[in-house]
Amino acid sequence: MNPNIFKSYDIRGIYPSDFDEEAIYRIGRATAQYFSLKNVAIGRDVRESSPSLFKELVRGLTESGADVIDLGLTSTPMVYFAASRLPVDAVISLTASHNPPEYNGMKLALAGAVPVGLTTGLSDIRDLAIQGDFTQSERVGTVTVEDIRPDYHSYFASFAELGDRKFTVVIDTANAMGILELPVFDMLAGNISVINLWNDLEHPFACHEANPLKTETLDELRAKVLESKADLGISFDGDADRIGFVDERGEIIPMDLMTALIAREILKKKPGSTITYDLRSSRSVREIIEEHGGKAVECPVGHANIKRIMRESGAVFAGELSGHYYYEENSTAESATLTAIFLLNLMAESEGPVSSLVAETHRYFHSGEINSEVTDKDAILAALKEKYADGKLTEIDGIKVEYPTWWFNVRGSNTEPLLRLTLEAETAEEMEAKKTELLGIIRNEK
User: Which of the listed residues 100, 179, 300, 387 has the most CB atoms within 10 Å of its CB?
Assistant: First the structure.
């Protein structure tokens, strides 16, 4: 197997060149052995390679003595849901998320949906799987089947508080696992009329990429919202752990501003709670959390970091610029559907359209994340620290430098020779000027 399939937070690569059935079998053996697993629940997505990889993953786990609960086809949030509902030591989502169909992989979490990353087990599993030094188990584990989807659907539908409001919602599931989230909305049919886009699991990937972070993938959704005069557009990524939104005007709702909106809804029910946000988010996120009586905690990028800090700080909710939203209601793990429910609750309470809710949070001018390919990340970061030494510097993830009217963050990719720039300013003119200035340094243009 290609050792580079072991990423910071998951395992992901091209099948069968990067890894195949033998590799996933060895990963199963290594995972069970490293964590001394007795019970594991596994859900999988609809990729063509998933059935054979699932079979060999199960063989590796059971030959190491672990009993397996087969969850069948699931979204990744459903697997995290199972981590706190079933008597298991670990859960695995066999998926490559939004990646094209030739990819596959797995996301691993321990009981209670505690994530496993490179520094918390994946690197050791990688080394053990490559070496193949497995101990012989005294027993072969069993395989049982359990469908947690009905409980999942009813649980998340129970958070809807829509009163007598009626909404038309367009939902784009990109022929991927978000289709399995749709029954939650069906349960709310008295309030929500759903128009579906690309909800055919018989033809997975036969449409645009399932990645709402790429704004071009939202073009069809935006057009359909306008055509149908819908109140909201919703887009799920490939394994349904990320979500994007479009307002009634067909405009994309910034994912960090969604954190601010959902924080408002949560703090009404849980006053004074701690809410976490990633350091690339708009300043308005912190401001709105604090204005509504919450405690705001800034954190590094990445689900393993965010979930750890949520547990350490007692946070009840976290949001990330990439469209991941985390809830104590799902063991501090992602729930894209709950994000949609909470937004609909806010819309039900509001007299205006969703765009007016967003406008209340849109206080600054944000660049989004801009990638630059570089040869020496450390040298560029050092140069930036020197040039902007008069600002307030923090280094929880790359460098972040803050000034009274603007700020920027530059962080390196864990897997590619890239630096990622995010900045924000009080005016569009200052944001554009600072963006040009920073990219000039990063890309060595001047």
Answer: 179
- Asked: is 3-149 a CATH 3.40.462.20 domain? The reply is no
309 vs 156: CA distance, rounded Å? 24
What is the length of the chain? 446
Spatial distance between the Cα atoms of 33 and 37, rounded to a whole number of angstroms: 7
Give the integer Cα–Cα distance in Å for 440 and 273: 41
Architecture of domain 160-251: 3-Layer(aba) Sandwich (3.40)
Query: What's the CATH number for 255-357?
Result: 3.40.120.10
Q: What is the pTM of this model?
A: 0.96
CA dihedral 359, 364, 365, 370 (to 10 degrees): -110
Q: What is the mean pLDDT of residues 10-14?
A: 96
3.30.310.50, 3.40.50.2300, 3.40.50.720, 3.40.50.300: which CATH number matches 365-442? 3.30.310.50
CA distance 57 to 63: 10
**84 counts as catalytic:** no
List, in sequence order, every residue forming a beta bridge with 316; answer none if it has no partner: none
> Residue 68: left if φ>0, alpha if ψ -120 to 50, beta else—which one?
beta
Burial of 313 (0-12, 13-18, 19+ CB in 10 A): middle
pLDDT tens profile 54-112: 999 999 999 999 999 999 999 999 999 999 999 999 999 999 999 999 999 999 999 99
Among residues 49, 50, 64, 97, which one is catalytic? Answer: 97
